Amino acid sequence: MKTPAPAIGIDFGTSNSAVAWTTGRELACMVPLEGSATTIPTAVFFNTEDRSTHFGRDAIALYLAGTEGRLMRSLKSLLGSSLMQDQTEIGHQRVSFEDIIALFLSELAARTRRQLGVEPARVVIGRPVHFVDDDAERDRQAEDTLRRAAQSAGLGEIGFQYEPIAAAFDYERRVSHESLVLVVDIGGGTSDFTVVRLGPERLAKADRSSDVLATTGVHIGGTDFDQRLSIECVMPHFGFRHIGSQGREVPSRTFFDLSSWHLINWLYAPKAVRQVQELRVNYLDTRLHDRLMNVLQDRQGHRIASEVEEAKIRTSMTNDDAAIDLSFAEAELSAALTARDMSARLAALLDNVVSCARECVTQGGATGDTLDAIYLTGGSSALSPFQSALRHAFPGTKIIEGDLFGGVAAGLAYAA
Prior knowledge:
CATH topology of the largest domain: Nucleotidyltransferase, domain 5
Radius of gyration: 22 Å
């Protein structure tokens, strides 16, 4: 009997992406995308030295090694924004951001085909509950843009599923009895929630719409946490909140752009560098300005973002202080991140995320007492201050940490 062509699910993430497949007869399997790794950073590097294009860890490594070129990250964050149809210069050519997303999806599809040896029968791509908060038209435009990019990538007709619902379908394979679950998906760009009824008897239902009691989402995720930590802990070393000779703070926009993965590249343009150079008159301590110019002229902005992200992870995992290396801006320069600092700096953002979770439970007609479990997926759901805030909001409710990087992709494969 001929084996049916697999269905695949694509979790196109702000920070990392993953692909899973199933023929419907077995549990979903993750596709190795970079060596044995089943996740790949959502990153594209255009090498201007030899005009080659690189993806994932390879892209980031080349950039950090000093290879001349353009690194693009957090592309998903642009969906629904006014920048989406803009063009950017890469190797003396103008390329739209939609085309860059299509290029990344095309590479995901090619690697998947090589691993599976066949064309997929069906493809479902995950999407956040809201690409854009409180703007239905821009949200629709974001999904349309992602659909066009996927079709340009050769994925054919594709379907979409909310990412937290996909995670719920994956978790359901491990549920032994009917349960009412709050699924929490904290990714790089969004935080999404669903209250859903799960159970072995429900798996065979073709229409699961009545089992999904509520979905909510907010456009806050891991990159927002990184930005806040960078602004508060790192950017003062370059002049953020520095009071100049005229008694005014140095204009802050540069520091916010330098702390945002998808905006860093704009600061390397000659016009932007000149504008930052002109800020020198606003500095009383010009050493801070020297550091900032070193970062822009040597194109080290993404290194700062990477160092902050790694420090956040180390501090979350160990509850110890972490040093953020800034020696590329000035010899022996570093910043410190403590667990207490991280909790304090992120408190306002985490309050908004947890409020969105509470709203989902309320909309679903549930309470913390009636939930059987809270299921976590998405890399940023492992952040210790977030888990502490969630436990405080839902005391006594069992919290289960799922497959943080593969659960959504697996659930999307089941949906496909």
